[in-house]
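User: These chains co-purify. Model them together.
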Amino acid sequence: MSKSEVGIGLVGSGFMGRCHANAFRSVSGLFDVACEPVLRVIADATPELAAQAARNLGFARCTDSWKVLVADEEVDIVAITAPNVLHAPIALAAIETGKTIYCEKPLATTAAIALEMAEAAEAANVVTLVGFNFLRNPMIGLAREMISSGEIGEVTGFRGRHAENYMSDPDAPHSFRTDPQGGGALADIGSHIISMARYLLGPISDVQADCRTFHTTRPECFDSTKRLPVEVDDMTHALVRFESGASGSLEANWAATARTMDLSWEITGTKGALAFSQERMNELKVFSNIPGRSGYTRIEAGPSHPPYGRFCPAPGHHIGFNDLKVIEVAELLAAHAGITNASPDFREAYEVQKTVEAMQVSNVSRQWVVV
Amino acid sequence: MSKSEVGIGLVGSGFMGRCHANAFRSVSGLFDVACEPVLRVIADATPELAAQAARNLGFARCTDSWKVLVADEEVDIVAITAPNVLHAPIALAAIETGKTIYCEKPLATTAAIALEMAEAAEAANVVTLVGFNFLRNPMIGLAREMISSGEIGEVTGFRGRHAENYMSDPDAPHSFRTDPQGGGALADIGSHIISMARYLLGPISDVQADCRTFHTTRPECFDSTKRLPVEVDDMTHALVRFESGASGSLEANWAATARTMDLSWEITGTKGALAFSQERMNELKVFSNIPGRSGYTRIEAGPSHPPYGRFCPAPGHHIGFNDLKVIEVAELLAAHAGITNASPDFREAYEVQKTVEAMQVSNVSRQWVVV
Amino acid sequence: MSKSEVGIGLVGSGFMGRCHANAFRSVSGLFDVACEPVLRVIADATPELAAQAARNLGFARCTDSWKVLVADEEVDIVAITAPNVLHAPIALAAIETGKTIYCEKPLATTAAIALEMAEAAEAANVVTLVGFNFLRNPMIGLAREMISSGEIGEVTGFRGRHAENYMSDPDAPHSFRTDPQGGGALADIGSHIISMARYLLGPISDVQADCRTFHTTRPECFDSTKRLPVEVDDMTHALVRFESGASGSLEANWAATARTMDLSWEITGTKGALAFSQERMNELKVFSNIPGRSGYTRIEAGPSHPPYGRFCPAPGHHIGFNDLKVIEVAELLAAHAGITNASPDFREAYEVQKTVEAMQVSNVSRQWVVV
Amino acid sequence: MSKSEVGIGLVGSGFMGRCHANAFRSVSGLFDVACEPVLRVIADATPELAAQAARNLGFARCTDSWKVLVADEEVDIVAITAPNVLHAPIALAAIETGKTIYCEKPLATTAAIALEMAEAAEAANVVTLVGFNFLRNPMIGLAREMISSGEIGEVTGFRGRHAENYMSDPDAPHSFRTDPQGGGALADIGSHIISMARYLLGPISDVQADCRTFHTTRPECFDSTKRLPVEVDDMTHALVRFESGASGSLEANWAATARTMDLSWEITGTKGALAFSQERMNELKVFSNIPGRSGYTRIEAGPSHPPYGRFCPAPGHHIGFNDLKVIEVAELLAAHAGITNASPDFREAYEVQKTVEAMQVSNVSRQWVVV
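Assistant: Joint model of the four components:
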């Protein structure tokens, strides 16, 4: 094993923590990575949780203090899957040590804090990557390439959405998601469709949003007999204009009864169009305008759409959600090794968050807001 | 043939004129109508066109004057498929004669004129019906029934659209569609999705729209070397709030490159959801929330969904666009005979037009507008 | 109205009778027909039924004797929608009069009788047309054109099916459908997929079928307390070889619980492929092999696919089942006027029936049978 | 890390070898496995290839001799992804050592050899598992549960297929796949749909197949100027009867131009039906017969369908092909630890192969063959 090793420190062992661990374990068997990730330290809220996580996920050591993890000399990359409110302190501490940072979204609880983080990282020249994993889908890469090459002409319209149903039950309890500090459907999943819109079409310049709260109280997390008021949005519909001249609409909805992962969009150009939904993540629909033969073609992910071929040798086999995370980690390692520039970095995550906040402002003012 | 006859006078013999004629010819073989429609008079712009139309469509007589047609004593129902600008004068003249009026949409070139027409019709107590044919789909009837019965719970979200591509070619010529008087994608096809939204969810109370014109000039109709400026919208995205408390977004787009008839919507309720697209007009998707078995069920139109059984004896056979017009004419005849109340009538068409205009106002003011 | 008239005599007023009547009433408003059909005489089992049918469907006269109808001098075209067992006597009588004959499928209760009918018609040089209406779909026409032009290369594989659920209820009563004389799923709907396979790929040369009966008794039609034995098949799967060298499989199933009209097929060629289902009759899926962009394109029926434009001016509007019958009647009138050759005629219907019988023989012998 | 370790020896490092390695690396972070797999030895054709594979896939040691690997005392499980012809010698050697064996399909080049392997394994009482990975899909598990519980009634019809296009190019070179010894579409991928049919519906009792070879020569693997004759099938269609009384048809096709992974089926029962395609592997369509609401429901894979929840916390995220292999390896480890019985084992793989051979025999005899 002649590859140099890179020490991983992971903060948090919930769903996303497991995803990270799995990706770090798998990546070198699937990608030609510059360095071999080694699971060195995991941190969680209590010593017991941390020990269990180390055992389950295969980390060598554990701690109940993220500060200890950040300071650990054998940790080269700090992966942050802790609650949103902790992203900033952990990341800022890691920036001071010069370590590479891999942080889940949303980057911070406010755009102002996100900007502070981005500026600190840039000043310290550290590598940062934010986990907008859906951008890693080979079909999204194909879409971006088709748009930027002009294959669908000039883009005129965008119609996007991230709709799920995980909060459609009025008795789904209060949590960090429903906390006014950075919570709500728009912040939680609207950020995904905003990041994807930016990835494909560039910056959003003007917004006008309408935020709605349907479930105005929710049970307290540990005492379901008490109900607390909810102030964040369950559903937001927004009008958007892009700097490019395109415009359209966008929805964030965590009470979308029928939807599990409708991170979807249709992008219309003057010569063609593209349509995608994460509910069928191995497909991209491409419209081409051939007389008598016009229609959407359902393109299946395959080795022609890198890095799909890292996972499967032929189309039709399908990659899954966890594979997107492996691609993200491969990107992270390449950036850590200085081979590529990490993207989306803290700066980009700040831009997303700024767009979210502009929408929230427009909802209150009932007027268009320039982002 | 003991049924009483009802004399039909049709103004206009374009696509919609043929549709009307076909529906009047077919209806009594498919429905138990109270009276037998007889094609008496057709009017068109010139004597030659009128004569040809009479021959092709099977009318007994013809004229180049709609006034003659309206005044004809053997005409009981005046069907109007003339250019939009003529709807008002023809309808107002017909109202004076007390005849039943069947008019294509949009009812008038402005909401004010539409209101005048509605009030005149109500004062004269004449039967009026406006051709929002898509409402006649048995699957739309099923959707409405499911919503009003509470089968999907309280409705929270609406996401609708009417997108076609018939004006996506920048060289599609100027026409009544692109005339500032009542033209534009929003007025032309946005009216369909607005009428359907109202039909399913009730009145829209507040709107905020963003109208865009991509093709700012178009060739003159009879001299393609000259280009005229276009002021109407090619694409409009709008936020909408309903009186019921639901809210969402709505799009009208006649430059939607990939779409031929995406008159579509998803309606989300607290207990279920419905989804429909006119591109698959014989299907309704119904979501029901059964643990481990949740998902959208694709329901096919069949005899359980009246009046489908009038056309085919079993599901899977499918009705088509022209059949919707036959259903509309069956409704018209029932209303003419006093058996049912015609709907949507001029009043309802006015309400749709008022909503369109509120959107246009909001686009200029860049603020929410109360309808 | 200068067009010459053609007198229609219709035997039978069930579902198919209504279809015929509707098509004859509509056709001249939609197609440029050479002659105007006039509904002259309708025959049904009793004078009462015949009178009611005349009133409902708009025929001038009625009779309870098909012989009277066939002999009527004002009847130019005899349309037969009577029970299968009557097809032969009516058609043979009509052939003697030299009238044009429009007969529902299956043509006869045995292939031998069908052959006798075909030979009689050919000897008398009368025009015959058999109601395999699904062939009239513009998308089927497009498929045929693409296959014969070589657009999908040499055809290798066929996988077809006609599956419905109208007999899946074990208590669906005995009827002419379950009568050993010409009944069973294979004869009733298998004939549709066989006729379509022949229309698209040419003659079937060898067959091997496996017929199954799941509901071995069914209630007597007018006394549901008595059950009669059923000998005909509910489901048949068959292997088929075509003269062209292609091969594949085919299913007929009237107990297909989940299916309403799955008259569907996939045809694979060396360069492309086509897929169709009548459950989405306005769509054809076309596969083209473009590196990185391969996939099925969903083509929507539109004016590029004649005679769709006769019904609607733009794609996305959709034609329905009854429109297929209008197209069929337009073909009938053109053949009656000597403009085109009628197809599928009695000869072709005999070939279909011969294929059905070869399958039935192979099921008994458990060996391949040359058709 | 208190879990006991289990030493893995992997023969072969092609696509399937990488799949195995990835699954062994990931499994303990996703499942609560009884023992921790450790990648000890990898064998490949040459020392160089073996060394490279060890480096890429993370094995501690390497060898160019599978015999050395099998004899290695630190190897507890022998995973076989070598060419088909080597399965038997490697497996038989491993059986002698008493080691657990994890072998790719097809198990052997003939059913006779497969039987010998199964009997040897049973006599030695070793754990065997064969890589029919598609059975591991949670949606297949759900289908099986629904069938066995009677949720869709008595099963009457099966219509299945495994169609891909990887050999549709006539210049795709000769390989082990086209070798008469165990090659052909039927043996290669037909085995998948046969194993799945058996998994869902039980043993197939009678078959009648029609095998076709379209590309009768193919280029030699290392000298494309020479073409060799091909004797194996490109496409097979077969009629099948099940011991349960159900019947239907089945296709294996590796020249299916439009298909990448159409391992698909529809299973019809007297009360319901199920439909699945691996091209949308995270979906199962379930038909339920509710008056006016009948239709296929698209059920998305989610935590209600174990072991989906091991990978993702909510529906809509999707698992991929490689995850199926992780599930398989979790099963392997459980069986190795004596917690569960491995399935499908060598005996079951023999039964599949026997069915394949019965089909091949029937193709030659042109008669039905009892399996």
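Chain B has two domains: 4-133, 138-280+282-317+345-370.
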